[in-house]
Design brief:
Blueprint: E1 2-3, H1 17-36, E2 42-45, H2 48-60, H3 70-95, E3 102-105, E4 108-110, E5 123-129, H4 131-141, E6 145-147, E7 153-157, E8 164-165, H5 168-176, E9 180-183, E10 189-193, E11 199-201, H6 208-218, E12 223-228, E13 233-235, E14 243-245, E15 247-249, H7 250-258, H8 267-279, E16 284-289, H9 293-297, E17 303-306
Parallel strand pairs: 1-2, 1-12, 2-9, 3-9, 4-10, 12-16, 15-17
Antiparallel strand pairs: 4-8, 5-7, 6-7, 10-11, 13-14, 16-17
Helix pairs in contact: 1-3, 2-3, 6-8, 7-8
């Protein structure tokens, strides 16, 4: 399951540790219910607000301590949110009498050095700004900024496509040992392969849903949940003709993506991730809100993306 940023830091909140821990505790209750009903769960999460805030902290304190590059800030956010999730979910499972360990893994994700995203940043991170503030940050700090929806302007950074997860075998071993794993948080730390076979980090943020589908495929998951702030995917979003979708075949999803129905900065990567997962052999991907996760797996909520031959199936608990 891939948790959206709203599951950890809501738009009206300041982002204090207490606020985020309270949100994660509510999220853990939903995950605990899934585990209690028989599902084996692997978790990933977004980090857009958190990594943006860490960058601001770095920049504001640059005269006192050396600032860290974006890939290092991504690693910091993985540790922070992994800690919150590991603790909250462990507490939730103990309260339910479920004997299961939770482990968070700092994860590196390989990207291509020549990915076009490096010359065309699109991934919003950090807080919203007014246009005037965004323009000042562009001039003073070299930000690349873009208007994001109706709420204002944000910093945007490169978002290269994930190719492989470096710690894949470690994560798979933990899953097979019965551990609930939190991995590839924030899309993982983006790295490129060096000529000697090693890796080095690059300044970017990978989309967490695209990294999540790679993680789901690597652990041989049958189902992939993408949890966001809406219950269903919409066609003609924001227009009078807006309508929710209960299900999408891979073919239909590809057609809607090509027609521009799902914007690159919001629903587009989620639908693309769902399609990739199903095309690679996954039985079903559901896109829905956190509170509808259990219902989505029962076929009672969310938008279910599946291959043509699976459109009428109802699934039973499994991995």
């Amino acid at each position: 399951m891939a948790l959206g940023g709203n599951a950890i830091l809501q738009s009206h909140q300041r982002g204090t540790a207490a606020e985020q821990q309270a949100n994660v505790a509510a999220t853990a209750a939903q995950i605990g219910e899934l585990i209690e009903t028989g599902w084996e769960v692997v978790i990933t999460h977004g980090n857009g607000p958190q990594v943006g805030n860490i960058l601001i902290q770095n920049e504001e304190a640059a005269g006192i301590v050396p600032p860290m590059p974006l890939d290092a800030c991504g690693g910091q956010s993985q540790g922070l949110l992994g800690y919150f999730l590991q603790q909250a979910l462990g507490n939730e499972l103990r309260a339910r009498g479920i004997r299961c360990q939770v482990g968070a893994m700092i994860t590196q994700v390989i990207v291509a050095a020549d990915d076009p995203a490096f010359v065309s940043p699109t991934k919003p991170i950090g807080p919203f700004f007014t246009r005037e503030r965004a323009e000042r940050l562009k001039e003073e700090r070299g930000y690349v900024v873009a208007e994001v929806g109706s709420r204002g302007w944000r910093r945007v950074v490169p978002s290269p496509d994930p190719k492989a997860i470096v710690e894949r075998d470690i994560i798979l071993g933990l899953v097979q040992a019965g551990v609930v794993v939190v991995a590839a948080g924030g899309g993982g730390v983006p790295v490129i392969a060096g000529p000697g076979g090693g890796y080095r980090g690059v300044e970017a943020v990978i989309d967490k849903d695209l990294a999540g589908q790679q993680l789901a495929r690597d652990v041989k998951a049958t189902h992939f949940l993408i949890l966001t702030d809406v219950e269903r995917v919409m066609l003609d979003y924001g227009r009078p003709s807006q309508r929710p979708l209960d299900r999408l075949t891979v073919r239909e999803a590809r057609e809607h993506l090509a027609a521009g129905q799902f914007p690159p900065g919001s629903m587009g990567p989620k639908v693309e991730a769902a399609v990739r997962f199903v095309e690679a052999g996954g039985e079903l991907c559901a896109i829905t809100s956190l509170d509808k996760a259990v219902d989505a797996l029962r076929g009672m909520a969310g938008t279910r993306v599946m291959a043509e031959e699976n459109t009428d199936r109802r699934e039973e608990p499994g991995l």
